[in-house]
Design brief:
By secondary structure, the protein is of the alpha+beta class. It contains 4 helices and 11 strands. It has a domain of 152 residues: Alpha-Beta Complex (Nucleoside Triphosphate Pyrophosphohydrolase), CATH 3.90.79. It starts with 10 loop residues before the first helix and ends in an 18-residue tail after the last helix. It holds the Pfam family NUDIX. This is Coenzyme A pyrophosphatase. Its cofactor is Mg(2+); Mn(2+).
């Protein structure tokens, strides 16, 4: 079993994630006439240098996920934390969309053999039906932000996802279901991205069957 106290970007981590996803009973959702989209949950090495925007002091051997701050010029979710992703083009699969968007947004070109699996679909308040696709990026020294879509690129340590104070649940005036947040450094990430990160933690890293589709989103994420 991979040591969760020292999560390195190694073959053993890839094998663990693939094994856990094989056992996971994924729950796709019916398309409710919403816009279909996919996001890339990409496992890479952690690098606290250059323009990457690392949030924690950690060695390059640590495993991390790629997140971005969306450009303030975007129509949807401007300035918010996000996983690379976007709308599914005609004829594309969810996995193909995740690979394409990863290349377009952060300059990381991966082949289909880097696809590890998918998590549960998630319906957003802004009208998207999202499929999260887990990818293996491995040792990735350079990422390049597309300024049309991405304000900054961040590598979020997988160790951060396992913090004892994560997740944080808050009551919502708009729903009976709580809003889920994931703490990162001295800040936090909101659902829907936070819910997807939490399920990645539970399923891919810890081998659980945790569901997140019911979690509410803060009002600012509705548009």
């Amino acid at each position: 079993m991979h040591n969760m106290k020292n999560i390195t970007c190694s073959n053993s981590l890839r094998e663990l994630v693939e094994s856990n996803l094989t056992k996971f009973k994924r729950k796709p959702l019916n398309n409710r006439g919403l816009r279909r989209a996919a996001v890339a949950i990409t496992i890479v090495d952690y690098r606290n240098s250059g323009n990457i925007g690392g949030l924690l002091p950690e060695t390059d051997e640590g495993a991390a996920l790629i997140l971005t701050r969306r450009s303030a010029r975007l129509k949807n979710h401007a300035g918010q934390w996000a996983l690379p992703g976007g709308s599914i083009d005609t004829g594309e699969s969810e996995e193909e969309t995740a690979l394409r968007e990863l290349a377009e947004e952060v300059g990381l070109h991966l082949k289909k053999d880097r696809i590890l699996g998918c998590l549960d679909d998630f319906i957003t308040r802004s009208g998207f039906h999202i499929t999260p696709v887990i990818l293996w990026g491995g040792q990735t020294p350079y990422l390049h932000a597309n300024p049309e879509e991405v304000a900054s690129i961040h590598r979020i340590s997988c160790r951060e996802l396992l913090r004892k104070d994560a997740p944080v649940l808050d009551n919502s005036p708009e729903s009976e279901d709580p809003i889920l947040f994931m703490p990162v450094g001295n800040s936090w990430i909101a659902t829907p991205t936070a819910a997807i990160l939490y399920q990645f933690r539970e399923v891919a890293l810890l081998g659980k069957q945790t569901r997140v589709a019911h979690f509410e989103q803060p009002y600012f994420a509705w548009r």
